[in-house]
Design a protein that fits this description.
This protein is an alpha+beta fold. Helices cover 19% and strands 48% of the residues. The protein has helices spanning 2-10, 15-24, 44-53, 188-195; strands at residues 55-63, 72-80, 87-96, 99-109, 115-119, 128-136, 139-146, 149-159, 162-171, 174-186.
Length: 197
């Protein structure tokens, strides 16, 4: 029974985001994108934050709202930074039961345009576009959009070995958390061993 449900729920785990967001789309309004003014130039604290995200991460996640509330999954990511740019790329995958799907995010500071990038394959595919954001201390807030849907991804580093990620969408005048992930830093070899199973 579990094997029959998993493909329906995910059609590949790249559907995690789409499922959670589509469950809220009927009540989501076409409100303006979250306003988060960004500086013309990324600061050194921004660079330091993204440098701390570099490395291998692993941990559980859960859809916390909408039709698929309660669906749990496990993710493994590797964060990579570019010395010439301020930002980070996360590459890896998420797994539910026997099914694993590649997942990724790319964000970088683009001069006066602020932060830009994609979550999954962007709004042209099955993901979301990063259209702005800001770094404050040990947290980054990235503005996300897909068609009429606006939202945000908040990533925080309470310590050097813990990364909390929350994806929220705007419903009426409130931000509603949809997906939560709690990742821990692990060695690259551990990620390879987990992914191979």
């Amino acid at each position: 029974m579990v094997r029959q449900q998993s493909p329906v729920l995910f059609s590949g785990i790249s559907m995690i985001v789409r499922m959670a967001l589509s469950a809220l789309l009927p009540v989501a309004t076409a409100a303006a994108i979250l306003s988060s003014p960004s500086e013309a130039h990324a600061s050194e604290p921004d660079r330091k934050f993204f440098n701390k995200v570099e490395g291998a991460w692993s941990g559980p996640g859960e859809i916390v709202a909408g039709k698929y509330k309660g669906t749990r999954f496990t993710c493994n990511f590797t964060g990579i930074t570019d010395k010439q740019k301020v930002g980070v790329s996360l590459d890896g995958g998420c797994r539910v039961g026997l099914f694993t799907q590649k997942m990724s995010a790319i964000v970088e500071h683009a001069g006066r345009k602020g932060y830009r990038g994609t979550f999954m394959d962007g709004a042209v595919g099955e993901g979301l576009d990063v259209v702005g954001g800001s770094v404050k201390g040990h947290k980054v807030t990235l503005n996300l959009t897909r068609n009429q849907l606006n939202g945000a991804m908040l990533a925080s580093l309470p310590d050097d070995d813990t990364l909390h990620v929350t994806v929220s969408v705007r419903v009426d005048q409130q931000m509603v958390p949809v997906i939560g992930m709690n990742l821990k830093r692990v060695s690259a070899s551990s990620i390879g061993a987990i992914a191979g199973k």
